Amino acid sequence: MIPATFLHAGRVFRPWISSPEFWVMAAIAPLIFLYIMIQLFGGLVRQLTGSFNSVNATILVLVAWAFILAITGSSTIFSERQAGLYERFAVMPAPLGSALAGRVVAEFARIILMMTVVGVVSVVAIRDKTYPDHPIVILPVLLLVALAAATLGTLVGFTITSVQGAVAVMPLIVVAMFINTQLMPAEQFRPILRSIADWTPVSVVGQAVNAHTIGDILPFILWFIGITALCGLGLMRRARTLQH
After folding, report:
1. CA atoms within 13 A on the CB side of 132
2. Under DSSP, is residue 104 helix (H, G, I), strand (E, B) or coil?
3. What pLDDT score does 244 carry?
4. Is 198:177 a contact under the CB 8 Å cutoff?
5. How many beta carbons lie within 10 A of that of residue 162, not counting itself?
6. Residues 62/68/69/74 CA torsion (nearest 10 deg)
7. What is the C-alpha separation between 78 and 153, in angstroms, rounded?
8. Which among 7, 61, 114, 162 could bridge 26 via Cys, Cβ 3.0 to 4.6 Å?
9. Coil, strand, or helix at residue 230?
10. With the C-alpha atoms ordered 217, 218, 221, 223, is the resulting torsion angle positive or negative?
11. Rg for the chain, CA atoms, rounded
């Protein structure tokens, strides 16, 4: 099944990299988002708190855009389904699960490419950097974020019944983008939002990157391993349903 999975991933990913839309969404748009977060929101945060960490802003962009890419990819999956994707699955010799897993791998690769582009630009171009206490932790943390986003996006793509179904997930991403402790301390939020801000996905990624105890990384594990496991089980169930 593993060779078939990577074969399907390659068939999805190769046409992507020759498409201008792919590079707009995977490279240009997240860099514009990073610029906006640092130049516009960074100035606002400095006025409110007296300080601003551009590395935290970069982590926010990486996490938020990973899920934006995944959800926009889910609408593409729906369009492919409308164009006869399931009919092509029906005549392929490999297990159906390998096709769904291959899509996860392709989405994962796209997200990793985006993270690499944004990360390199951030390291090279941003001057006022304050790195986390344990920079080496950033890599496995972001890999798990990418896997969770890819699995979620693939599950959404294979279960929605209209393009609007993918759009319905976007408000949750927007909330996580702005209610978090990566840009501002929790104390700066209104009382009703303070407890929420500490536990949003972007916040727990920041906590994991700067973790000093297992308790600091536990919320991240619960969020992102939980997302990956639940969506993985959902994809397995979807594969069995389609197989029959």
Report:
1. 21
2. helix
3. 65
4. no
5. 11
6. 150
7. 11
8. 114
9. helix
10. negative
11. 19
